[in-house]
Amino acid sequence: MKPFSLKGSMYLYQQSLKVLPAGTGSNARIMRAVCPIGTPCTIFIDKARGARIWDVDGNDYIDYRLGYGPVILGHGYPRITRVVNRAQKEGAVYALGNELEIELAKKIIELVPCAEMTRFANSGTESTMVAVRIARGYTKKDKIIKFEGAYHGAYDYMLYSTDSPFTAPRRKPYPMSWGIPKGIDKYVLIEEWNNFSSIEQTVRKHHKDVAAIICEPVMGNAGCIPPRPGYLKHLRELCDKYGILLIFDEVKTGFRLALGGAQEVFNVIPDIACFAKSLGNGYPIAAVTGPEEIMSVVGPGKVLHGGTYSANPIAMAAGLATLDVLERKQVHEHIGKFGKRLMRGISAVFTDARMPHVIQGFPSMFQFFFTEKNGIWSYRDLEACDRNLYASLHVELLKHGVMIDEDNEEVIFTSFAHHSQELNETLAAFSDAVSAVKRAPRTMVGGRI
Q: Which pTM value belongs to this model?
């Protein structure tokens, strides 16, 4: 194993601190455990191809972050690159209609169970923000129910209880940022994921004021927490009974768990669904979709949505090309087989090392937790997990050429570009990293800043 160094990244981070707030373009990119104690930094990347990514120090990693999930086909997938290069020769942005947005909307409507009409945006944050506004415009009600530990984007109404301290009061909105106006928390109700009785009580009590329940059908911001059997159906029934819209935030699950997203996997159809990430294999694109009756509230003099870059031809071309490739049966089959082997292999390494753990999720997105519990079913269950151990393992994996996220509350993603060579190298790296972690004292804690 060659010597591991982040000297170049450390230097660039010091330079970035002079011109970028916190030295980065996104708070979540700052890591603690990879740098000297008390000195956060971020890894600066030089290039990425297929299933691999290289930093400015020349370290080569097998990539399981995949940009927080968008890169479902692999970095620089040739067909997507060709299509995008061809599209940009015709112009990057028109701020007018283009035929590609009609074609892509038709494709999404064909694939996604809830879809009858679609509006395009540029990020997952924007898509959920628009979905919430549509729900309020349609129902003429103001409050939203969200779940503790779920992240739906960086805007005021949803920046509550996404990564709150375990000491925070349960079911009380906990602001995750400075600058959120006082009083907005009155419009947000916090619930516990997978708690059947609690959500029912909340809906009964507040339904006259609640426009929507928004959820990730598989929670992907608190590790990977699937719904308990029947839970999504329970939400659907409550919404139908009390005149509330059900919003699925499929920014992570969309086109990744299946072509039709989580709603296809669980056979529960939301009123509105939000997509981004895997829709463009790395290009900035998002979509909000739902039945015509609901989506028709968007328009002049009604619900406002728009943007200079919305439905730009480059993003539309990337989306169309990505879905065309994903429609090939072998793509999801390959990701499924690879992910299952990876999950089994990682679990075997931990079992052999006598490290209590649980590994859960789906072959295309999953996470492992060091815990005596037999499953993680809500955000508060993470308190029983050894996240220090996870952070230490993350550092050793980097040294051995495997990149997962430092934060145990993020997800491990797989792609069409991961093959047997990556699998064998990854499992060998896990074995070596576990041995190193068991030998060394642990002094660092990972997580978001």
A: 0.95
